[in-house]
């Protein structure tokens, strides 16, 4: 009995290491989602924004070769079988691409842009605060105090 248990453990470890176990689990999950969806009420049609967001997620999963996750995602969210064209997706999201940005997903590139823009915005806010303080419009020493 101990030998059978060791064999099962070794087989499970080998399948997990090779990725086959994860693929089987993902396929099973996708089938369960599909079956449950068939039993439930039909999903409403996805909005244009939802379709675009789901495509960003699909592109990210496929870029990193998360094939099992992609199959579960597609089954659960009923995305079209054929992905949207990257150029179309970038145009719809107003993302300007260059050779460097094409080496990453649009989602990652957009996140980097957002981080950069947020950093610039904080710099502008800091400059405005400094201008207000220097001009006396915003006096930190007497802030919140009323004169009697």
Automatic annotation (TrEMBL):
GO BP, one annotated term: microtubule anchoring
Highest taxon listed in the record's lineage: Eukaryota
Key word 4Fe-4S present: no
Pfam families (UniProt xref): FOP_dimer
Annotated FGFR1 oncogene partner (FOP) N-terminal dimerisation domain residues: 49-107
Entry's Gene Ontology cellular component terms: centrosome; ciliary basal body; motile cilium
TM annotation in the entry: none
Residues forming coiled coils: none
InterPro entries on file: FOP_dimerisation-dom_N
Keywords: Cytoplasm, Cytoskeleton
Name of the protein: FGFR1 oncogene partner (FOP) N-terminal dimerisation domain-containing protein
Taxonomic lineage: Eukaryota, Metazoa, Chordata, Craniata, Vertebrata
